[in-house]
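FAQ: What does the model actually see?

It sees only this:
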Amino acid sequence: MDFNELRDLITVINQTNIAEFTLKSGEFELVVRKEAQSAGSLPPVEVPAISALPDPVPVLPAPVLSSPASPAPPAASPLANDKLLEIISPMVGTFYRAPAPDEPPFVEVGDRVRIGQTVCIIEAMKLMNEIEAEISGEVVEILVSNGNPVEYGQVLMRINPN
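And it is asked to produce this:
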């Protein structure tokens, strides 16, 4: 990858809500991290030096839970109420309900989940990212079908934290 390709990649990442990006190629690794955003502006990108590293583990942003005080999704569900919390997609990718096509889904509507339990996978750039619950409760709604694309900030599931 030459300097112009790196510059273009960093420019594209800077125009997204991606908080951290890791690229391994051959003998080098590139890690791009952004500071927390202030309202209405994109943060500057910090680009560390490129160096040879042994098998780094990519760090991905945690899923975001929001309360109903957050902006409502475009199509509000009739099941949405004041006490339901949402599991929000932390990235753009493809949503998968199960670890493999021939395996059962991580969760179904009506299942109880606990903090840290994997509830789905989002595939982004050929990496499978497990999305974990950050709250215990009952799955009330699963809003995305298996294999469908998801956007950053899209509501994936609603949890009743009882």
